[in-house]
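Budget justification aside, the reviewers requested a transparent look at the raw inputs and outputs of the sequence design task funded under Objective 1. We therefore reproduce one unedited record. The lines immediately below are the structure tokens for a 535-residue chain.
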């Protein structure tokens, strides 16, 4: 049966046949541009994913150039994360209502604006503002890419497309640090932001040529109170998590942040239960394919963020790698591209449960390889650990993402993908907080005996971090050699303990997936759609 051409200016509201705006669809309703569109969507995702970490290696240079203190440099990193977390759920819902292609294009333009502000900043405050704007742009882009993929590809191709999407989302995170290090070494610190401008503008042109438009066919109004509550709750939660490594879990500001987040989340849930057109239908969580897959992703990203946090310090502080070399050294984790293409066929053959649970178990084994290293652990062991970790992630992440998106009605794709991004973002922030806290506690206890004779200022600096201890050791001449060796040994002990916790988290994720995630969902689409409705 032939399908008539669609008006290029009118968003598609059809079911996920993939029929595109601006070109006739062939027989069967499949958009002939869908695979080209997938490439464009993945490149947009990489631009935004890189932004989260690309700035980290430039922080020392930024501090010297702008006179930024440690607290201001922390906000250069955190402003992006907090803005993204606070806005992503609302932005996904806006894309559903007003057009996902429009949301994607607008998000890239916002990223360009934020990147220009950041690159040309002359004060720390302006740079922090630019990073926050970039986070808002990313909150538009990320859910739009995933929901467009879900809408454009029919179910029999969706697993393969989501595997490609998942690979690129992780690759952006992995390649961010080495790209940032290369740019800082070759140009100046502003180039880590300026690189976004030509890439994003070119992608906007390609999006309007290749990517089909889609949106919620019901055109329901936006739940403004729900959007405000969700943004406030997520900002409070992520802020509290970010404060943990520096202030501790029992600090008054940390506890206040968690308390505010709990109250706001409670108010948000009550609002969603009563709203005629909720931002996030809480009935979605009754579907274990949705809730268990989100939990698995959260635990996976918690472990990944914590592991990268530990290993980047290990490479620079213990193995004496430069920032650029340390970034490049993380690339074995890109092995996920080797297994991601097999995730969808394996799901069809053995089911979602086995693929997600097995992938998380392989990730756990990879981290254990690094955790069981000694003070003589060299880079080959770390490379092997990262390779195993990537192989497992290449299986677990696409399968979990497919489970989430296939459990939703197509009209709710934007909200589902936004919640997927929220889950990963909060999981990653928790990873740095939880794994970083374990690392800090063990490091402090092991290095303490070597610091008893130091004056208070030097004692506090050396006890605070490995970098601080090495800096103090450099001021002590020959006497500093023993302190430097003790600090490295203490950091290795802390790394082993924290990585063991990360492996345990992944083991827990494997158990959760095995116990709660259905292997297959045979319920009809109509029943799944009912879970998206109020009440």
């Amino acid at each position: 049966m032939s399908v008539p051409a669609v008006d290029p200016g009118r968003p598609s509201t059809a079911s996920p046949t993939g029929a595109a705006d601006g070109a006739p669809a062939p027989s069967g309703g499949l958009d002939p541009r869908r695979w080209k569109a997938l490439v464009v969507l993945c490149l947009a995702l990489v631009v935004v994913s890189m932004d989260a970490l690309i700035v980290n290696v430039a922080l020392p240079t930024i501090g010297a150039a702008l006179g930024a203190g440690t607290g201001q440099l922390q906000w250069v990193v955190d402003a992006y994360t907090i803005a993204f977390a606070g806005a992503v759920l609302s932005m996904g819902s806006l894309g559903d209502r007003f057009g996902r292609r429009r949301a994607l294009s607008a998000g890239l333009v916002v990223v360009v604006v934020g990147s220009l502000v950041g690159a040309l900043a002359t004060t720390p405050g302006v740079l922090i503002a630019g990073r926050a704007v970039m986070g808002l742009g990313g909150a538009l882009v990320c859910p739009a890419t995933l929901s467009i993929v879900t809408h454009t590809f029919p179910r029999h191709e969706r697993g393969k497309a989501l595997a490609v999407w998942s690979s690129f989302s992780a690759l952006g995170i992995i390649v961010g640090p080495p790209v940032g290090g290369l740019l800082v070494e070759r140009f100046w610190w502003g180039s880590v932001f300026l690189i976004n401008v030509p890439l994003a503008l070119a992608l906007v042109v390609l999006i309007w040529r290749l990517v089909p438009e889609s949106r919620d066919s019901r055109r329901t109004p936006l739940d403004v109170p729900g959007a405000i509550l969700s943004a406030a709750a997520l900002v409070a939660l992520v802020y509290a998590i970010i404060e943990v490594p520096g202030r501790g879990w029992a600090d008054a500001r940390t506890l206040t942040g968690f308390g505010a987040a709990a109250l706001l989340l409670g108010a948000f849930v009550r609002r969603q239960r009563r709203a005629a057109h909720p931002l996030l239908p809480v009935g979605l969580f009754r579907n274990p394919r949705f809730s268990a897959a989100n939990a698995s992703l959260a635990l996976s990203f918690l472990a990944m963020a914590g592991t990268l946090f530990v290993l980047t310090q290990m490479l620079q502080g213990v193995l004496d790698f430069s920032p650029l070399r340390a970034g490049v050294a993380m690339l074995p984790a890109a092995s996920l591209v080797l297994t991601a293409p097999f995730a969808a066929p394996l799901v069809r053959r053995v089911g979602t449960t086995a693929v997600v649970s097995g992938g998380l178990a392989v990730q756990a084994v990879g981290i254990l390889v690094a955790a069981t290293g000694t003070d003589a652990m060299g880079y080959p062991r770390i490379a092997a650990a990262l390779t195993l970790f990537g192989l497992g992630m290449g299986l677990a992440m696409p399968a979990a993402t497919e489970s989430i998106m296939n459990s939703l009605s197509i009209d709710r794709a934007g909200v589902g993908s936004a919640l997927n991004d929220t889950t990963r973002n909060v999981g990653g922030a928790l990873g740095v907080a939880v794994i970083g806290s374990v690392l800090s506690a063990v490091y402090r206890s092991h290095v303490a005996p070597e610091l008893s004779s130091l004056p208070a200022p030097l004692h506090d600096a050396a006890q605070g971090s490995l970098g601080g201890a090495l800096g103090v050791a450099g001021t002590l001449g020959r006497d500093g050699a023993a302190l430097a060796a003790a600090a490295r040994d203490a950091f290795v002990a802390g790394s082993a303990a924290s990585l063991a916790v990360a492996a345990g988290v992944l083991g827990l994720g494997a158990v959760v997936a095995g116990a709660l995630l259905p292997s297959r969902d045979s319920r009809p689409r109509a029943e799944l759609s009912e879970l998206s409705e109020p009440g």
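The chain has 20 helices and no strands. Confidence is low (pLDDT under 50) at residues 1-28, 523-535. Computational costs for records of this kind are itemized in the attached budget.
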